[in-house]
Write a structure and sequence with these properties.
By secondary structure, this protein is mainly α. It has a single domain, classed as ABC transporter involved in vitamin B12 uptake, BtuC (Orthogonal Bundle), CATH 1.10.3470.10. Helix 4 runs antiparallel to helix 5. 44% of the residues are buried. The C terminus is likely disordered.
Length: 335
């Protein structure tokens, strides 16, 4: 017999999936180039017999963008929930180990030296992985490893790469390179392509499979290392695997969309408030609600004004008040 939390989680996931499907379909005909529902359905069913411009709008612009928003939203929310579990702190987000700043530096460097879109993707993804490797290496300099040392090392590495990004912006050409770097760092799905979708699906999908398979181990790690050893779980090895999976997700997300904050922090917290902290339910619910939130915000970014708003700005505007409400409700308990 299912518990009350399981019933609420199932309702949330099913309801979220239906609403997500509706918004995904709506995103195909909403925008500055407005299409009718009939036109979109006709194009999806008869791609090669459709009008060239309309076909391009749906298949080459909006469809890959919609798929990318789903992947990034689900991935960042799952990575955030996993990090909050293994670090035993609800203030943790996917970029706590410096992966976003490392990826941002890689992308900015590629733009500075004139790398194309593939060069930017490679440098951004590599920068994100290198930053987490540095974080882990610095944390291991202490003879006695701890999650606190890992988090502090992440703060150091993030600050270092943030300074490097500022230096690149200082020396970049103000007419061409600097605007590109600045806009990329604010986060956007405007340049979505099926190549980016495939890249994101590969790495985010791989990371999600690992996290979902290890969700019961995340529950054990959230109780502390002593309890994990008692239950026969090696906390160090399992934490490394979970961090690696979350890093791949976050690095891939930043590579294809720039830096988008708050999703990995607020979505798991909202799901935890409504259902439970059990990652057996929390991780799937976070994936669905993260995708739903990202698709919704991206629709606002595309349709609210004549010029597209970078999605990173909107997630911060919406995320900060939600974050305050969640933790005021908990009367200051941040653990």
């Amino acid at each position: 017999m299912r518990t009350r939390e399981e019933k609420r989680a199932i309702k949330l996931i099913i309801g979220g999936v239906f609403l997500l499907l509706f918004l995904c379909f709506a995103s195909l005909f909403l925008g500055r180039y407005l299409l009718s529902v009939g036109e979109v359905v006709s194009i999806l069913l008869n791609r090669w017999d459709s009008d060239g411009i309309v076909n391009t709008v749906v298949w080459d612009i909006r469809l890959p963008r919609m798929l990318l928003t789903v992947l990034v939203g689900a991935g960042l929310a799952a990575a955030g929930a996993s990090f909050q579990g293994i670090f035993q702190n609800r203030l943790v987000s996917p970029d706590i180990l410096g992966v976003s700043n490392g990826a941002g530096f890689g992308a900015a460097l590629a733009m500075l030296v004139g790398g194309g879109s593939s060069g930017i993707a490679i440098m951004a993804f590599g920068g994100g992985l290198i930053s987490v490797f540095l974080t882990y290496f610095i944390s291991r300099l202490k003879k006695e490893s701890s999650t606190l040392a890992l988090v502090l090392s992440g703060i150091i590495v993030a600050a270092f790469f943030s300074a490097l990004i500022s230096f690149i912006k200082l020396v970049a050409d103000t007419d061409s390179v600097l605007p590109s770097i600045t806009y990329w760092l604010m986060g956007s799905f405007a340049g979505a392509t099926f190549e980016k979708v495939i890249f994101a699906a590969l790495f985010i999908g791989l990371g999600l499979i690992v996290l979902l398979a290890m969700r019961w181990k995340i529950n054990i790690l959230s109780m502390g290392d002593e309890e994990a050893y008692t239950l026969g779980i090696n906390p160090v090895k399992n934490r490394v695997v979970i961090i690696a999976a979350s890093t791949f997700i976050t690095a891939a997300a930043v590579t294809v969309s720039g830096i988008i904050g708050w999703i990995g922090m607020i979505i798991p917290n909202l799901c935890r408030e409504y259902i439970t902290a059990d990652n057996k339910l929390l991780l799937p619910a976070s994936c669905v609600m993260g995708a739903l939130f990202t698709v919704s915000v991206d629709l606002v970014a595309r349709c609210a004004t004549a010029a597209e708003i970078p999605i990173g700005i909107l997630t911060a505007i919406l995320g900060a008040p939600i974050f305050v409400l969640v933790f005021f409700k908990r009367e200051g308990d941040l653990e």
